[in-house]
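notes to self, project folder thing:

trying the whole complex as one job this time. last attempt i did each chain seperately and stitching them together was a nightmare. two parts in total, labels are on each line so i dont mix them up again. if this works i'll redo the older ones the same way
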Amino acid sequence: MTEKVHVPTSSFAEELAAIPGGEVVNKCIQCGICTASCAVARYTDEYRPRQLIQKILLGEREEVLKSRLPWLCMTCRLCEERCQEGVSPAEVFHAVRILAAREGYVPPEFRRVMDSLLNNGWLLADSYTDFEEEEREDMGLDPDLGWNDKFLKRIKDLLPIAEGEK
Amino acid sequence: MREILLYRGCTTPVRLPAYELATMNVLKELGVKAIPMKDVTCCGAQFVESLSPDAFAVIGGRILALAEDEEMDILTLCGACSGSLKITKHNLDNDPGLRRKVNDTLAEEGLKYTGKTRVLHLLQILAQEIGYDEIERHIVRPYNGLKIAAHYGCHVTRPFEIVQVDDPENPTIIDRLAEIAGAEAVDYPGKTRCCGGPMLAMDTTVATKIGQEKIFNVGLVGANVILTACEFCDLQLTQCQFDEAIKPSKRIPVMPITQFLGAAMGIDEERLGFEMNRISPDSVLEALQEGR
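result (full assembly):
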Protein backbone atom coordinates (compact mmCIF):
# COMPACT_ATOMS: atom_id res chain seq x y z
CA MET A 1 0.00 0.00 0.00
CA THR A 2 1.20 3.44 -0.87
CA GLU A 3 -1.11 5.43 1.37
CA LYS A 4 0.50 7.47 4.11
CA VAL A 5 -0.31 6.49 7.61
CA HIS A 6 -0.03 8.92 10.48
CA VAL A 7 2.66 7.98 12.95
CA PRO A 8 1.22 6.17 15.97
CA THR A 9 1.40 8.43 18.94
CA SER A 10 1.16 5.94 21.74
CA SER A 11 2.08 2.42 22.68
CA PHE A 12 -1.58 1.87 23.53
CA ALA A 13 -2.57 2.70 19.94
CA GLU A 14 0.01 0.19 18.76
CA GLU A 15 -1.27 -2.43 21.16
CA LEU A 16 -4.78 -1.97 19.73
CA ALA A 17 -3.40 -2.01 16.21
CA ALA A 18 -2.28 -5.58 16.84
CA ILE A 19 -5.92 -6.68 17.30
CA PRO A 20 -7.77 -7.22 14.00
CA GLY A 21 -9.86 -4.11 13.30
CA GLY A 22 -7.86 -1.95 15.70
CA GLU A 23 -5.13 -1.06 13.20
CA VAL A 24 -7.23 1.73 11.66
CA VAL A 25 -6.94 3.86 14.79
CA ASN A 26 -3.66 5.27 13.55
CA LYS A 27 -5.31 6.76 10.48
CA CYS A 28 -7.50 9.12 12.52
CA ILE A 29 -7.03 12.82 11.77
CA GLN A 30 -9.44 13.90 14.56
CA CYS A 31 -11.86 15.68 12.21
CA GLY A 32 -14.89 14.71 14.29
CA ILE A 33 -17.25 13.48 11.57
CA CYS A 34 -17.79 10.40 13.73
CA THR A 35 -19.13 12.39 16.66
CA ALA A 36 -21.19 14.54 14.30
CA SER A 37 -22.82 11.38 12.82
CA CYS A 38 -23.34 9.59 16.12
CA ALA A 39 -26.84 9.02 17.49
CA VAL A 40 -25.46 8.07 20.91
CA ALA A 41 -23.40 11.27 21.10
CA ARG A 42 -26.57 13.25 20.46
CA TYR A 43 -28.30 11.89 23.56
CA THR A 44 -25.49 11.47 26.06
CA ASP A 45 -23.16 14.01 27.58
CA GLU A 46 -20.13 11.78 27.89
CA TYR A 47 -19.93 9.65 24.73
CA ARG A 48 -17.87 11.33 22.02
CA PRO A 49 -16.18 8.90 19.61
CA ARG A 50 -13.60 11.42 18.40
CA GLN A 51 -12.60 12.23 21.95
CA LEU A 52 -12.33 8.56 22.88
CA ILE A 53 -10.07 7.93 19.89
CA GLN A 54 -8.01 10.93 20.91
CA LYS A 55 -7.49 9.39 24.34
CA ILE A 56 -6.27 6.22 22.66
CA LEU A 57 -3.86 8.17 20.49
CA LEU A 58 -2.61 9.97 23.57
CA GLY A 59 -2.04 6.67 25.33
CA GLU A 60 -4.62 6.91 28.14
CA ARG A 61 -4.61 3.13 28.45
CA GLU A 62 -6.04 2.53 31.92
CA GLU A 63 -8.68 5.22 31.61
CA VAL A 64 -9.96 3.84 28.29
CA LEU A 65 -9.87 0.16 29.28
CA LYS A 66 -11.75 0.76 32.53
CA SER A 67 -14.30 3.09 30.94
CA ARG A 68 -17.90 2.21 30.02
CA LEU A 69 -17.69 4.45 26.98
CA PRO A 70 -16.27 1.93 24.47
CA TRP A 71 -19.25 -0.32 25.33
CA LEU A 72 -21.77 2.36 24.35
CA CYS A 73 -21.02 2.15 20.62
CA MET A 74 -24.09 0.66 18.90
CA THR A 75 -21.91 -0.49 15.97
CA CYS A 76 -24.39 1.19 13.62
CA ARG A 77 -21.36 2.16 11.50
CA LEU A 78 -22.78 5.40 10.18
CA CYS A 79 -19.53 7.12 11.19
CA GLU A 80 -17.54 4.40 9.43
CA GLU A 81 -19.48 4.96 6.18
CA ARG A 82 -18.70 8.67 6.44
CA CYS A 83 -15.08 8.68 7.60
CA GLN A 84 -12.87 9.77 4.72
CA GLU A 85 -9.75 8.34 6.32
CA GLY A 86 -10.97 4.76 6.58
CA VAL A 87 -11.27 4.73 10.36
CA SER A 88 -14.03 2.63 11.86
CA PRO A 89 -14.71 3.71 15.45
CA ALA A 90 -16.91 0.60 15.78
CA GLU A 91 -13.90 -1.60 14.96
CA VAL A 92 -11.55 0.43 17.15
CA PHE A 93 -13.87 0.21 20.16
CA HIS A 94 -14.40 -3.46 19.37
CA ALA A 95 -10.64 -3.94 19.72
CA VAL A 96 -10.75 -1.94 22.96
CA ARG A 97 -13.50 -4.21 24.31
CA ILE A 98 -11.52 -7.33 23.49
CA LEU A 99 -8.44 -5.98 25.26
CA ALA A 100 -10.54 -4.76 28.20
CA ALA A 101 -12.21 -8.17 28.48
CA ARG A 102 -8.81 -9.90 28.54
CA GLU A 103 -7.91 -7.73 31.51
CA GLY A 104 -11.22 -8.39 33.26
CA TYR A 105 -13.05 -5.14 32.56
CA VAL A 106 -16.44 -6.25 31.27
CA PRO A 107 -19.54 -4.18 32.17
CA PRO A 108 -21.94 -6.08 34.44
CA GLU A 109 -24.69 -5.78 31.80
CA PHE A 110 -22.60 -7.80 29.36
CA ARG A 111 -21.55 -10.29 32.01
CA ARG A 112 -25.16 -11.05 32.95
CA VAL A 113 -26.15 -11.68 29.35
CA MET A 114 -23.10 -13.90 28.85
CA ASP A 115 -24.01 -16.04 31.86
CA SER A 116 -27.45 -16.73 30.47
CA LEU A 117 -26.08 -17.29 26.98
CA LEU A 118 -23.56 -19.86 28.18
CA ASN A 119 -26.22 -21.73 30.11
CA ASN A 120 -28.87 -21.82 27.42
CA GLY A 121 -27.14 -21.36 24.09
CA TRP A 122 -29.39 -18.43 23.24
CA LEU A 123 -30.42 -15.08 24.66
CA LEU A 124 -34.11 -15.32 25.50
CA ALA A 125 -34.46 -18.69 27.23
CA ASP A 126 -35.66 -16.99 30.43
CA SER A 127 -38.32 -15.04 28.54
CA TYR A 128 -39.66 -18.02 26.61
CA THR A 129 -42.55 -19.04 28.88
CA ASP A 130 -45.61 -21.23 28.36
CA PHE A 131 -47.43 -18.10 27.27
CA GLU A 132 -45.11 -17.51 24.30
CA GLU A 133 -45.11 -21.22 23.46
CA GLU A 134 -48.90 -21.20 23.27
CA GLU A 135 -48.85 -18.03 21.23
CA ARG A 136 -46.63 -19.76 18.68
CA GLU A 137 -48.83 -22.83 18.64
CA ASP A 138 -51.90 -20.69 18.04
CA MET A 139 -50.18 -19.10 15.06
CA GLY A 140 -49.30 -22.48 13.64
CA LEU A 141 -45.58 -22.13 14.42
CA ASP A 142 -43.49 -24.87 15.99
CA PRO A 143 -43.17 -24.14 19.75
CA ASP A 144 -40.03 -26.29 19.98
CA LEU A 145 -37.25 -23.87 19.00
CA GLY A 146 -34.61 -26.58 19.18
CA TRP A 147 -31.70 -24.50 20.50
CA ASN A 148 -28.42 -26.24 21.15
CA ASP A 149 -27.51 -25.64 24.81
CA LYS A 150 -24.25 -27.62 24.87
CA PHE A 151 -21.96 -26.05 22.31
CA LEU A 152 -21.34 -22.74 24.09
CA LYS A 153 -20.50 -24.55 27.32
CA ARG A 154 -17.97 -26.60 25.39
CA ILE A 155 -16.14 -23.53 24.06
CA LYS A 156 -16.40 -21.55 27.31
CA ASP A 157 -12.64 -21.44 27.70
CA LEU A 158 -12.39 -19.17 24.67
CA LEU A 159 -14.30 -16.50 26.58
CA PRO A 160 -12.37 -14.35 29.08
CA ILE A 161 -15.18 -14.05 31.61
CA ALA A 162 -14.65 -17.07 33.83
CA GLU A 163 -12.86 -15.33 36.71
CA GLY A 164 -15.73 -13.14 37.87
CA GLU A 165 -15.87 -9.40 38.17
CA LYS A 166 -12.84 -7.32 38.88
CA MET B 1 -40.03 -25.35 -4.74
CA ARG B 2 -36.71 -23.75 -3.83
CA GLU B 3 -35.60 -24.33 -0.25
CA ILE B 4 -33.56 -22.20 2.11
CA LEU B 5 -32.59 -22.61 5.76
CA LEU B 6 -34.12 -19.99 8.04
CA TYR B 7 -31.83 -18.89 10.85
CA ARG B 8 -34.44 -17.30 13.15
CA GLY B 9 -32.11 -15.85 15.76
CA CYS B 10 -32.95 -15.47 19.46
CA THR B 11 -35.45 -12.62 19.39
CA THR B 12 -37.88 -13.18 16.51
CA PRO B 13 -39.41 -16.50 17.62
CA VAL B 14 -40.15 -15.16 21.11
CA ARG B 15 -40.79 -11.46 20.72
CA LEU B 16 -41.99 -11.09 17.12
CA PRO B 17 -43.22 -14.48 15.87
CA ALA B 18 -45.51 -12.65 13.43
CA TYR B 19 -42.38 -11.69 11.46
CA GLU B 20 -41.34 -15.33 11.22
CA LEU B 21 -44.87 -16.41 10.23
CA ALA B 22 -45.41 -13.63 7.68
CA THR B 23 -42.00 -14.21 6.11
CA MET B 24 -42.49 -17.97 5.75
CA ASN B 25 -45.95 -17.51 4.21
CA VAL B 26 -44.93 -14.70 1.87
CA LEU B 27 -41.88 -16.61 0.66
CA LYS B 28 -43.95 -19.75 0.17
CA GLU B 29 -46.34 -17.78 -2.03
CA LEU B 30 -43.31 -16.58 -3.99
CA GLY B 31 -41.94 -20.09 -4.46
CA VAL B 32 -39.37 -20.30 -1.65
CA LYS B 33 -39.74 -22.71 1.24
CA ALA B 34 -37.98 -21.44 4.39
CA ILE B 35 -37.05 -24.28 6.73
CA PRO B 36 -36.26 -23.22 10.33
CA MET B 37 -32.79 -24.31 11.48
CA LYS B 38 -32.55 -26.33 14.68
CA ASP B 39 -29.64 -27.44 16.86
CA VAL B 40 -28.10 -23.97 16.44
CA THR B 41 -26.95 -21.42 19.04
CA CYS B 42 -27.13 -17.63 19.21
CA CYS B 43 -24.99 -16.04 16.48
CA GLY B 44 -22.92 -14.24 19.13
CA ALA B 45 -23.68 -10.70 17.94
CA GLN B 46 -22.73 -7.84 20.26
CA PHE B 47 -22.01 -9.99 23.33
CA VAL B 48 -19.66 -12.81 22.33
CA GLU B 49 -18.47 -10.59 19.50
CA SER B 50 -17.27 -7.98 22.00
CA LEU B 51 -15.37 -10.42 24.17
CA SER B 52 -13.55 -12.92 21.99
CA PRO B 53 -12.87 -13.05 18.25
CA ASP B 54 -12.10 -16.77 18.48
CA ALA B 55 -15.35 -17.65 20.25
CA PHE B 56 -17.32 -15.47 17.84
CA ALA B 57 -15.74 -17.17 14.82
CA VAL B 58 -16.40 -20.68 16.07
CA ILE B 59 -20.03 -19.93 17.01
CA GLY B 60 -20.81 -18.43 13.61
CA GLY B 61 -18.66 -21.04 11.88
CA ARG B 62 -20.72 -23.84 13.41
CA ILE B 63 -24.01 -22.33 12.16
CA LEU B 64 -22.53 -21.95 8.67
CA ALA B 65 -21.11 -25.48 8.73
CA LEU B 66 -24.50 -26.93 9.72
CA ALA B 67 -26.02 -25.28 6.66
CA GLU B 68 -23.16 -26.59 4.48
CA ASP B 69 -23.99 -30.04 5.73
CA GLU B 70 -27.52 -29.58 4.36
CA GLU B 71 -26.12 -28.01 1.18
CA MET B 72 -28.35 -24.98 1.58
CA ASP B 73 -28.04 -21.22 1.91
CA ILE B 74 -29.08 -19.36 5.04
CA LEU B 75 -31.84 -16.78 5.24
CA THR B 76 -31.70 -14.26 8.09
CA LEU B 77 -34.46 -11.99 9.36
CA CYS B 78 -32.44 -10.02 11.89
CA GLY B 79 -29.89 -7.34 11.09
CA ALA B 80 -27.56 -8.46 13.86
CA CYS B 81 -27.67 -12.16 12.90
CA SER B 82 -27.27 -11.25 9.26
CA GLY B 83 -24.31 -9.01 10.01
CA SER B 84 -22.55 -11.37 12.37
CA LEU B 85 -22.88 -14.44 10.14
CA LYS B 86 -21.67 -12.45 7.13
CA ILE B 87 -18.74 -10.99 9.08
CA THR B 88 -17.83 -14.45 10.36
CA LYS B 89 -18.01 -15.86 6.85
CA HIS B 90 -15.82 -13.01 5.61
CA ASN B 91 -13.27 -13.63 8.37
CA LEU B 92 -13.21 -17.39 7.80
CA ASP B 93 -12.91 -16.99 4.03
CA ASN B 94 -9.99 -14.57 4.36
CA ASP B 95 -8.04 -15.95 7.32
CA PRO B 96 -6.83 -19.54 6.81
CA GLY B 97 -5.39 -19.65 10.33
CA LEU B 98 -8.73 -18.76 11.89
CA ARG B 99 -10.51 -21.25 9.65
CA ARG B 100 -8.16 -24.03 10.77
CA LYS B 101 -8.78 -23.21 14.42
CA VAL B 102 -12.54 -23.18 13.90
CA ASN B 103 -12.48 -26.43 11.95
CA ASP B 104 -10.44 -28.13 14.68
CA THR B 105 -13.28 -27.40 17.10
CA LEU B 106 -16.04 -28.27 14.61
CA ALA B 107 -14.39 -31.60 13.79
CA GLU B 108 -15.47 -32.90 17.22
CA GLU B 109 -19.03 -32.85 15.87
CA GLY B 110 -18.04 -34.04 12.40
CA LEU B 111 -18.65 -30.58 10.94
CA LYS B 112 -16.45 -28.57 8.60
CA TYR B 113 -16.54 -25.01 7.31
CA THR B 114 -15.52 -24.67 3.67
CA GLY B 115 -17.31 -21.47 2.65
CA LYS B 116 -19.95 -22.95 0.34
CA THR B 117 -23.02 -21.58 2.09
CA ARG B 118 -24.23 -18.08 1.34
CA VAL B 119 -25.86 -15.89 3.98
CA LEU B 120 -28.74 -13.86 2.57
CA HIS B 121 -30.76 -11.30 4.44
CA LEU B 122 -34.51 -11.21 3.71
CA LEU B 123 -34.13 -8.06 1.59
CA GLN B 124 -31.65 -9.90 -0.66
CA ILE B 125 -34.01 -12.83 -1.10
CA LEU B 126 -36.85 -10.50 -2.04
CA ALA B 127 -34.96 -8.06 -4.28
CA GLN B 128 -32.28 -10.29 -5.82
CA GLU B 129 -33.29 -13.93 -5.61
CA ILE B 130 -37.02 -13.53 -6.27
CA GLY B 131 -36.98 -10.11 -7.91
CA TYR B 132 -39.29 -7.10 -8.07
CA ASP B 133 -41.12 -8.27 -11.23
CA GLU B 134 -42.07 -11.61 -9.72
CA ILE B 135 -43.30 -9.93 -6.53
CA GLU B 136 -45.32 -7.42 -8.54
CA ARG B 137 -47.11 -10.30 -10.28
CA HIS B 138 -48.34 -11.46 -6.86
CA ILE B 139 -49.81 -8.12 -5.74
CA VAL B 140 -53.59 -8.54 -5.91
CA ARG B 141 -54.78 -5.95 -3.36
CA PRO B 142 -52.53 -2.90 -3.75
CA TYR B 143 -52.53 -0.12 -1.16
CA ASN B 144 -54.08 3.17 -2.10
CA GLY B 145 -53.12 6.59 -0.73
CA LEU B 146 -50.73 5.23 1.88
CA LYS B 147 -47.37 6.77 2.74
CA ILE B 148 -44.65 4.52 4.10
CA ALA B 149 -41.35 5.31 5.81
CA ALA B 150 -38.69 2.63 5.35
CA HIS B 151 -36.28 1.79 8.16
CA TYR B 152 -33.51 -0.49 6.95
CA GLY B 153 -31.55 -1.49 10.04
CA CYS B 154 -27.87 -0.59 10.37
CA HIS B 155 -26.55 -4.13 10.40
CA VAL B 156 -28.59 -5.06 7.35
CA THR B 157 -26.79 -2.53 5.14
CA ARG B 158 -23.46 -1.81 6.87
CA PRO B 159 -20.57 -2.42 6.44
CA PHE B 160 -21.39 -2.59 2.73
CA GLU B 161 -18.02 -4.14 1.79
CA ILE B 162 -19.07 -7.26 3.70
CA VAL B 163 -22.86 -7.42 3.82
CA GLN B 164 -23.48 -6.39 0.19
CA VAL B 165 -27.06 -5.27 0.65
CA ASP B 166 -28.40 -2.17 -1.09
CA ASP B 167 -26.69 1.22 -0.69
CA PRO B 168 -25.57 2.07 2.87
CA GLU B 169 -26.20 5.82 2.50
CA ASN B 170 -29.25 5.65 0.23
CA PRO B 171 -31.00 2.29 0.55
CA THR B 172 -34.05 1.71 -1.66
CA ILE B 173 -35.15 -1.95 -1.48
CA ILE B 174 -37.95 -1.50 1.09
CA ASP B 175 -39.10 1.68 -0.66
CA ARG B 176 -39.31 -0.10 -4.02
CA LEU B 177 -41.12 -3.10 -2.57
CA ALA B 178 -43.67 -0.82 -0.92
CA GLU B 179 -44.22 1.07 -4.17
CA ILE B 180 -44.77 -2.18 -6.01
CA ALA B 181 -47.48 -2.86 -3.43
CA GLY B 182 -49.12 0.46 -4.33
CA ALA B 183 -47.87 2.68 -1.50
CA GLU B 184 -45.95 5.93 -1.71
CA ALA B 185 -42.48 5.77 -0.16
CA VAL B 186 -41.51 9.02 1.54
CA ASP B 187 -38.06 10.16 2.57
CA TYR B 188 -37.43 11.48 6.07
CA PRO B 189 -34.53 13.02 7.97
CA GLY B 190 -32.20 10.42 9.46
CA LYS B 191 -33.50 7.54 7.35
CA THR B 192 -30.25 5.58 7.65
CA ARG B 193 -29.83 6.26 11.37
CA CYS B 194 -30.00 3.55 14.00
CA CYS B 195 -33.25 2.66 15.83
CA GLY B 196 -31.37 2.69 19.15
CA GLY B 197 -31.92 -1.04 19.75
CA PRO B 198 -28.29 -2.01 20.46
CA MET B 199 -28.25 0.61 23.24
CA LEU B 200 -30.93 -1.28 25.19
CA ALA B 201 -28.21 -3.43 26.73
CA MET B 202 -26.46 -0.45 28.31
CA ASP B 203 -28.89 2.46 28.65
CA THR B 204 -32.62 2.17 27.93
CA THR B 205 -33.25 5.89 28.37
CA VAL B 206 -30.81 6.80 25.64
CA ALA B 207 -32.12 3.95 23.46
CA THR B 208 -35.67 5.27 23.78
CA LYS B 209 -34.63 8.82 22.89
CA ILE B 210 -32.84 7.60 19.77
CA GLY B 211 -35.92 5.64 18.69
CA GLN B 212 -38.27 8.51 19.40
CA GLU B 213 -36.25 10.88 17.24
CA LYS B 214 -36.94 8.53 14.35
CA ILE B 215 -40.66 8.43 15.15
CA PHE B 216 -40.69 12.23 15.29
CA ASN B 217 -38.93 12.51 11.91
CA VAL B 218 -41.26 9.96 10.31
CA GLY B 219 -44.24 11.88 11.71
CA LEU B 220 -42.92 15.15 10.22
CA VAL B 221 -43.24 13.85 6.67
CA GLY B 222 -46.69 12.39 7.29
CA ALA B 223 -45.89 8.69 6.88
CA ASN B 224 -48.72 6.33 7.89
CA VAL B 225 -46.56 3.30 8.68
CA ILE B 226 -42.92 2.37 9.31
CA LEU B 227 -41.65 -0.72 7.47
CA THR B 228 -38.78 -2.75 8.89
CA ALA B 229 -36.50 -5.61 7.89
CA CYS B 230 -35.20 -6.63 11.32
CA GLU B 231 -37.20 -7.71 14.37
CA PHE B 232 -34.93 -5.81 16.72
CA CYS B 233 -35.59 -2.53 14.91
CA ASP B 234 -39.29 -3.36 14.67
CA LEU B 235 -39.60 -4.03 18.40
CA GLN B 236 -37.53 -1.01 19.36
CA LEU B 237 -39.41 1.42 17.10
CA THR B 238 -42.69 0.06 18.50
CA GLN B 239 -41.64 0.02 22.14
CA CYS B 240 -40.25 3.55 22.14
CA GLN B 241 -43.75 4.80 21.27
CA PHE B 242 -45.19 3.39 24.51
CA ASP B 243 -43.72 6.17 26.56
CA GLU B 244 -45.20 9.37 27.93
CA ALA B 245 -43.26 11.42 25.36
CA ILE B 246 -45.61 10.14 22.64
CA LYS B 247 -49.39 10.46 22.91
CA PRO B 248 -51.23 7.19 22.17
CA SER B 249 -53.11 8.94 19.34
CA LYS B 250 -49.79 9.89 17.73
CA ARG B 251 -48.42 6.35 17.56
CA ILE B 252 -47.37 5.23 14.09
CA PRO B 253 -47.85 1.55 13.18
CA VAL B 254 -44.62 -0.40 12.66
CA MET B 255 -44.48 -3.67 10.73
CA PRO B 256 -42.02 -5.95 8.98
CA ILE B 257 -41.94 -5.63 5.19
CA THR B 258 -43.26 -9.19 4.79
CA GLN B 259 -46.43 -8.48 6.78
CA PHE B 260 -47.00 -5.41 4.63
CA LEU B 261 -46.36 -7.23 1.34
CA GLY B 262 -48.32 -10.29 2.40
CA ALA B 263 -51.52 -8.29 2.89
CA ALA B 264 -51.21 -6.80 -0.60
CA MET B 265 -50.57 -10.31 -1.95
CA GLY B 266 -53.94 -11.36 -0.60
CA ILE B 267 -52.61 -13.64 2.11
CA ASP B 268 -55.06 -14.05 5.03
CA GLU B 269 -54.38 -11.64 7.87
CA GLU B 270 -54.14 -14.45 10.39
CA ARG B 271 -51.39 -16.10 8.34
CA LEU B 272 -49.46 -12.84 8.68
CA GLY B 273 -49.90 -12.56 12.45
CA PHE B 274 -51.48 -9.09 12.41
CA GLU B 275 -53.45 -9.75 15.59
CA MET B 276 -50.12 -9.65 17.46
CA ASN B 277 -49.15 -6.12 16.37
CA ARG B 278 -48.92 -3.86 19.43
CA ILE B 279 -49.88 -0.75 17.48
CA SER B 280 -53.06 -1.44 15.54
CA PRO B 281 -52.39 -2.05 11.83
CA ASP B 282 -56.03 -1.27 10.94
CA SER B 283 -55.32 2.16 9.45
CA VAL B 284 -52.79 0.49 7.12
CA LEU B 285 -54.98 -2.46 6.15
CA GLU B 286 -57.91 -0.14 5.42
CA ALA B 287 -55.85 1.31 2.57
CA LEU B 288 -55.88 -2.02 0.71
CA GLN B 289 -58.00 -2.01 -2.41
CA GLU B 290 -60.08 -5.01 -3.30
CA GLY B 291 -58.98 -6.67 -6.54
CA ARG B 292 -56.77 -5.17 -9.17
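what i see at first glance: The mean pLDDT of chain B is 97.
need to look closer tmrw
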